[in-house]
Amino acid sequence: MRTVLLAIAFAITAVAQSAAPAPMTREERGDLYMVRKMYREAIDAYRSAGKSAVLWNKIGIAYHQLGELEAARRSYERAIKLDKNYADAVNNAGTVFYAEKKYRTAIARYTRAISLSPNTASFWSNLGTAYYARGKFDEMEKAYTRALQLDPNVFELHGTIGTRMLDRSVADRARYHYELARMYAIAGKNDLALQYLRKALEEGFKEKDKLQAKEFSTLRETQEFKDLMTLEPRVL
User: Fold this and answer.
1) In the chain, which end has fewer C-beta atoms inside a 10 angstrom radius, N or C?
2) pLDDT tens string 43-94
3) For the range 51-59, what are the long-range contacts, defined as Cβ-Cβ under 8 Å and sequence gap of 24 or more?
4) How many structural domains are present in the chain?
5) Which structural domain range is residue 203 located in?
6) 3-state helix, strand, coil in the chain (%, to 5)
7) Is residue 164 part of a domain?
8) Helix (H) / strand (E) containing 41
9) How many Å apart are CA 17 and CA 20, to the nearest integer?
């Protein structure tokens, strides 16, 4: 009987041990710190995990979140040096140049990232935003249209997507939101088009004649659109 009980005890112990979760890797611990916005701790965890392109890219994102752009850029560049075809790192380096208002360089990086991963919506979105910053609205429209084709929700995303950075900082937010409304109207997403038109007007967009553009033809019969037309642009 004692032998049977011991065998059962050993069996239970073995099952419990096999069911126990595996310990976290250092990279996984870094990912957890990122979720908790403990960026310094994340950097330390990633540094201790190895020297792969993926890890250097993640270190760059952590520095980026801390606002330490030079350290972020160096980290992204190290990732690219380890893997020149690592599209996420190329894109992320572009976001640093964008933040530094080096829009031409940012556009070059985004274009390179797209050549490596042409079906990534966030890369097209970033490219469109950089073109917007340079006042190149035709190029912006083409890039944004492609981004929407790839991911209808791309403009509703914020911050980072895994190992990819998204640009959402623009100077003239009123015009930017008008352009987004136009993109959504073209895509037939009327609710979002109306939402961004309202944002544009609330942020001081004064060119109401642009609301008569053909892109908004299906919206003009709605009561919401008519209500928007009665709004006075906010004085900034």
Assistant:
1) N
2) 999 999 999 999 999 999 999 999 999 999 999 999 999 999 999 999 999 9
3) 51/82, 52/82, 53/79, 53/80, 53/82, 53/83, 53/86, 53/89, 54/79, 54/86, 54/163, 55/27, 56/82, 56/89, 57/86, 57/88, 57/89, 57/92, 57/163, 58/27, 58/30, 58/31, 58/34, 58/163
4) 1
5) 173-229
6) 70, 0, 30
7) no
8) helix 39-49
9) 5
